[in-house]
Amino acid sequence: MVNIFRWSWGLLLAFFCLFLVRVFLPLPFANEILIFAIYTIGCNFLLGRVGFISFGQPAYLAVGAYGTAFYLFYFGSNPFVGILIGVLSGVAIALLVGPFFVRLRSDYFALVNLALAVIMFYLFEKILAKITHGDNGLWFLTNMTSTPIIDLGNPSDFFIFTFLLAFGVWALYKYLDDSIFGACCLATKTNEDKLKFLGYSNFNIRWLAFVIANTTTAMAGSLYAVYFGFVSPEITAPSRAADPVIVTLLGGVGTLYGPIVGAFAYTGMKDLISGYIANWELFIGLLLVFIMLAGEKGIWGTLEPILKKLIFKKKNSTN
Amino acid sequence: MPTDELLVVDDLNVAYGESKVLFDVSIHIRANEIVSCVGRNGAGKSTLLKTIGGFIKPTTGSIMFANTSLVGIKSYNIAKMGLKYIPQDKKVFSDLTVRENLELGSYATQDYNWDKVTEYFPKLKSLMERKAGYLSGGERQMLMIGRALLGDPQVLLVDEPTEGLAPSIVTQLQNVFLELSKKTALVIVEQNLSLVSAISERVYAVKEGRVVHEISDESDIKSNVCEQFL
What is the pLDDT of residue A4? Predict the structure, then answer.
């Protein structure tokens, strides 16, 4: 039990708790949390491990969503193939823009990504309006065919699929955190020159991290597309550019489970507070200010050491 | 010039923008030799090491390492070639443990033999799980040198290794450098003249970006002789 928050037991426990969300809370809420958590973990990795803050995550989300949407609207009907195409679109865009973006310092990196989100918004809304249908978006819910074993058109099956996918994503990021590559990412964040002394290329490390993070974001976009059966340029609206950064800060930067906790808190507050007042963002903003002033660790970043301490105490007392 | 040279720097000129820092610097290092560079702060000693390590591009001149030109080669590739730079500021990867710091060195060189590291620095064995940010200055220096040893480099460029360290650690490092020179050439930039005179086989005196003197006779390397160049 000692390493429950460090090793794979922690991963199983986290996902067991996440599964309980499905049991006790409405299915749409659970699905939204899962997708949002996947959306955020790339941003969390970039910010916490590589030191890159990105206000352009909606761009990569939109690339994944539109990759899936184009396939399901124009070419085929299998949602699994649609998701695969969305993920591959994410790989392609990250490979394409990564070499230019990762050369920049973190502040310029944040802005250039925001610029990309703005470009994508106008690209999907205006320039490609003939194929994206502009503001009206692409509707393809009825185009999707039922698939055997797991039917993604069914919200319950969609939850199971997304849950398993999220588990795989978290296992990957857990592996990355513990790997030499994860250490390299942390090292490039803290001191890039020192990494060169050892024979590492900072550029290659950052590019690979960028591709991994934004492919995950594109995967979330694909899931959004399949879940709603609809994609519009709103998905890459610059006004939503800060969402993944807010969720990252809310959950705890650089923590493995921060994105899940952050997505839960953010979606929960949004659903709860928006029922009473329209400007629910005000409460998120206030909470964020409080979290930053209270130590910048986020919800999970604050809870994790307390839980660890409790478990260690329990273990020592039983010994 | 002797033919057993491992590293040959010839007529090296370096500038930071408009400001010229090194002027026609020429030095050479043989295998398993300890060569020191002495001089005042701002003389250009660290710039010389950084230029050899590929961190600064020279304006003119050549740097030959084992008959391969290093000019234009990226610093991380120079490190892979077996020429490691150990910087002055003792900044390790503070968020990583000692073990993870060594793993980074091992993965880059594919050399996982840590016995040689702990042989030189036994203290590191007990510090493996400690975050490097919590190490003392001497322990950090041990970690940096130990990490640089992975991959069996042919040349170590060591920038002010004893700066701010306790005398007992300096003595330990002195012994380590002497032991290391059986396998590796060392170029050491140092202001601690007792260390320089104790370990160096040759000394270059650097002043205002120029090599103004070379002491090639080991018996002439004495603190009071070197002191005139500080």
Answer: 44
Q: What is the pLDDT of residue A161?
A: 94
| Mean pLDDT calculated for residue range B161-186 | 90
Sort out which chain B residues have CB atoms less than 8 A from A192's CB and list them: none
pTM comes to 0.82
**pLDDT number for residue A315:** 63
Number of domains chain A contains? 1
Domain residue extents for chain B: 5-229
Q: CB contact, 8 Å: B76 with chain A?
A: yes
Closest CA to A51 of A267, A229, A234, A248: A248
Best probe of the A interface among B55, B77, B95, by most A CBs < 10 A, is B95
Q: Does A126 touch chain B (CB under 8 A)?
A: no
pLDDT given for residue A1 in this prediction:
37
Q: Is residue A291 part of a domain?
A: no
Sign of CA dihedral B47, B52, B53, B55: positive
- Residues in chain A, pLDDT under 50: 1-4
Specify the pLDDT at position A282.
83
Cβ <8 Å between B74 and A201: yes
State how far residue A272 is from chain B, nearest Cα, in angstroms.
Answer: 38
Q: Is residue A222 part of a domain?
A: yes
CB contact under 8 A, B103 and A180: yes
Residue A282 lies in a domain: no
Residue A201, min C-alpha distance to chain B (Å): 6
State the pLDDT at residue A241.
87
- Chain A contact present for B57, CB below 8 A: no
For B74-123, how does the pLDDT look when each residue is reduced to its tens digit (9 = 90+)? Answer: 999 999 999 999 988 877 888 889 999 999 999 988 899 999 899 999 99
Fold of B5-229: Rossmann fold (3.40.50)
Res B179 pLDDT > 60: yes
In a domain, A121, yes or no: yes
Q: Specify the pLDDT at position A3.
A: 47
Domain span at residue A103 reads 2-239
The pLDDT of residue A18 is 77
Q: Is the ipTM of this complex over 0.85?
A: no
